[in-house]
Amino acid sequence: MSSSNEFHGWLGRDNKAAEGNMTWSSFKPKSFSPIDVDIKISHCGICGSDIHTLRSGWGNTRYPVCVGHEIVGHVVRVGDQVKHLKFGDRVGVGAQAFSCLECEDCKAGLEQHCGKMIGTYNGKYPDGSFSMGGYADYARVPAHFTIKIPAGLKSEDAAPMMCGGITVYSPLKKNGAGPGKRVGIVGLGGLGHFGVLFAKAMGCEKVVAISRRRNKEKDARTMGATDYIATSEDEKWARKHSQSLDLIISTVSSPDMPLESYLRLLTTNGTFIQVGAPEDKLPRFGAYSLIQKGVKIGGSNIGSPKDIEEMLNFAAEKGVKPWIEQRNMKDANKSVVDMEDGKARYRYVLVNADQEGRAKL
Prior knowledge:
single chain, about 25% helix, alpha/beta, 7-stranded mixed β-sheet
């Protein structure tokens, strides 16, 4: 059973934390409320957001911070007002832990766009307490943002879907990915590999993986890519593949991207959606890159609880299985460093050893 006032996890204490300097320490979770659940964590995926936050790359982080927002575990405490979850349920939590549930966006099922949205870590709740993530033994989260994991998904596979998966599933679904659609996925990391897997599972006519080098081509084709573009190795790739795609999902988090060349790949009225979040501004581009073919540029922010539930059920039905490597929770520091060094193929999932057996139930 979780303690009401003390959990334990890997804490980052300054902007050098991502360099292998997190410390396993106790911390105080938010005050337990009637709308909350406590989760005994079995698995937590490592997301690029964790690294950005540990080093204050997206702005000043509130230290100490416990990152991790690809959480799977079992409910061990249930607030009095929680009706859809019970003790022992296997559940997941993604990148969002709170919204007002009263504004126009929330009422429309777009909680991830709420102006009072609070992240699963590095956020401040209305009661003044801070949100702490899943590199830990327990998590305390409002139940509205806690989703049951379908029986057809293993916990280690569901964990990275809670952020990495939904970040690409949602814009693919909302922009019509499916039979007859030609889709490009920029970047073949944790997010990008999910993009290829989901686009394939949705039945897209063409799935093109786009990366700097050709070293990931075999993996991409095994995941379901029908074609591959290596932007730093293929000569005149933008001209050769001009007007060949209806939709591009860009997962890269580097501002150094050939954006105008990507837009050339789009057909008339095509759409470019950015989901990766660089720490610097996107490249400049000329207006005629949009005007000439009527293409659109947009963004997408994770997904709502309903979207996540839909994605998990879709993944279970279609047998979508991410490419992961499980690491013991005690090795979180090394795993974060390896992730930053680009060694993941294609997602690390931290496992709490004492929960590993139960997680497979």
